[in-house]
Amino acid sequence: MKIAVLTGGGDCPGLNAVIRAVVRRGEQHGLEVMGVREGWRGLLDPPLHFRLTREATSGILHLGGTILGTSRTNPFKKPPGGAEMVIKNLKTLNVGAVIAIGGEDTLGVATRLSSMGINIVGVPKTIDNDLSGTDLTFGFDTAVGIATEAIDRLHSTAEAHKRVIVCEVMGRHAGWIATHSGMAGGADVILIPERPIDIEAVCAHITHRHRTQNKNFSIVVVAEGAKLGISESTVAQKLDEFGHVRLGGIGQQIADLIEKKTGYETRVTVLGHIQRGGTPTAFDRVLATRFGVHAADMVAKGEFGKMAALRGTQIVSVPLAEATAHLKTVDDAFFSVAEVFFG
Ligand code: F6P
């Protein structure tokens, strides 16, 4: 059987490890693997694809980015008949199944195409770790490691200058990166999209720490999707094809308010795409490889309409519809552990 593999949405450390694993395991199953360029864009007209072989995927395990390229193209927003065009092209190319590696948006499209009769297997990708159905997505561990190292570095400069430093990390709808890196890095306050920001409480934590703990610096970690409630934390209202606004700016807003209300000099560092670039951690390489092997096995077994997922220590198959029905956000029990160390 000929299968197509694509990577959609924001890039993520570990994408190449999945592609390599699909090809290597696919070869053992006698599958011919076609790489689709630029996510769902590569299945519209004209289709963009090339043959993926063992040679073509050799030496990519440790590389960031994706050899296939990616995009946020949504075929259901490409009138007239973007989804039908994808289905027609898959037929013309004689593709029997698609392995879609993506997050909520890419796998949301996969779920809809699956209900239209396309044989699809999903692989959960996002540094945000906000996909349901799986305990973890690959890329998350790398992003947390990068953010934690940054927080460690911010600590020493904050202390040297007696400053408050606000570190803005990624996390559109969920504060997993902020909570994990904040806990690992010993942040004094962590702000996440799941909880509206109470700026008075933030300033009280910082002031209490400075006055009673004999500290003259503090670190605040804020997820880019966290909301103050008084204004939108966006730099532009431009929407992508999945209706997402481009985020950014909450760190600066928080820093301005902290400085104004506490009188402590406050600076901002926005980590941005640094969290997504570069080489994946060993953990993400292994997780991505296990997902890729499992995805090829799912195709061989005809297990379609499902996503490879991590449950405990096992890789299992879960319905795509379950994985994309709602986002996995930070739960109160987990966040309350981080809160023990605020202030
Ligand atoms: O979905 C992953 C993510 O990294 C989010 O955390 C972030 O909001 C978004 O992608 C940024 O997307 P872009 O690279 O298109 O700016």
Structure, explained:
- Helix 1 (15-28) runs parallel beside helix 8, helix 4 packs across helix 5 and helix 6 packs across helix 7.
- The chain contains 10 helices and 13 strands.
- The longest helix is centred in the middle third of the chain and has 22 residues, at 140-161.
- The strands form 3 sheets. The chain has a 7-stranded mixed sheet, with helices on both faces.
- The protein is 38% helix and 20% strand.
- The chain is α/β, with parallel strands linked by helices and 343 residues long.
- Mean pLDDT is 95; it is low at 231-235.
- It is elongated and about 70 Å long.
- It has helices at 15-28, 82-92, 104-115, 140-161, 176-185, 199-212, 250-262, 282-301, 320-325, 332-339, and strands at residues 2-7, 32-36, 49-52, 97-102, 120-124, 164-169, 189-191, 218-223, 234-239, 245-247, 266-270, 306-311, 314-319.
- Bound molecules: 6-O-phosphono-beta-D-fructofuranose.
- 6-O-phosphono-beta-D-fructofuranose binds at residues 10, 103, 126-128, 170-172, 224, 246-247, 276.
- The site of 6-O-phosphono-beta-D-fructofuranose has 12 residues, from strand 10.
Question: Layout of helices and strands, plus pairs?
Answer:
Elements: E1 2-7, H1 15-28, E2 32-36, E3 49-52, H2 82-92, E4 97-102, H3 104-115, E5 120-124, H4 140-161, E6 164-169, H5 176-185, E7 189-191, H6 199-212, E8 218-223, E9 234-239, E10 245-247, H7 250-262, E11 266-270, H8 282-301, E12 306-311, E13 314-319, H9 320-325, H10 332-339
Parallel strand pairs: 1-2, 1-4, 4-5, 5-12, 6-8, 6-11, 7-8
Antiparallel strand pairs: 2-3, 9-10, 12-13
The chain binds 6-O-phosphono-beta-D-fructofuranose.
